[in-house]
Design brief:
The structure is a single chain. The chain is of the alpha+beta class. Helix content is 55%, strand content 28%. The protein has 2 helices and 4 strands; from the N terminus they run E-E-E-E-H-H. Helix 1 runs antiparallel to helix 2. The protein is elongated. Strands 1-2-3-4 form a 4-stranded antiparallel sheet. The chain has one domain. The structure holds zinc ion. The site of zinc ion has 8 residues, from loops.
């Protein structure tokens, strides 16, 4: 799960406020106003099929993305590869769990 920030209009505050954007993978899971705490969750019934579709695309495009990274900076790629490989199952499990736990 990753968090980004953006200024959006809060429907409770009726003001433009800073919001936390919570992502599961590349899919927006929820939006939370940092001023009042109002949270809007996206339906997991809608997110799960979209997440699985996105995951399929990510897995299919992974070799090409790895090749580009290796071509851009071979040493950093080789040094980071073992840790990146070890992290993948945990990363996917955490993303999936964030969708189904609700
Ligand atoms: Zn608010």
């Amino acid at each position: 799960m990753s968090v980004e920030f953006s200024d959006l209009t809060c429907e409770r505050c009726d003001l433009v406020t800073e919001h936390e954007l919570h992502y599961a993978g590349r899919l927006l899971e929820s939006v939370r106003c940092t001023r009042c705490g109002h949270r809007v969750m996206l339906s997991h019934q809608a997110l799960l099929p979209a997440y699985l579709h996105d995951l399929e695309h990510r897995v299919a495009s992974k070799p090409q993305r790895m090749y580009r990274r290796a071509a851009r900076d071979p040493l950093a790629f080789l040094v980071g590869l073992p840790l990146a490989v070890v992290r993948q199952p945990t990363k996917f499990a955490r993303e999936l769990w964030s969708l189904v736990r609700r």
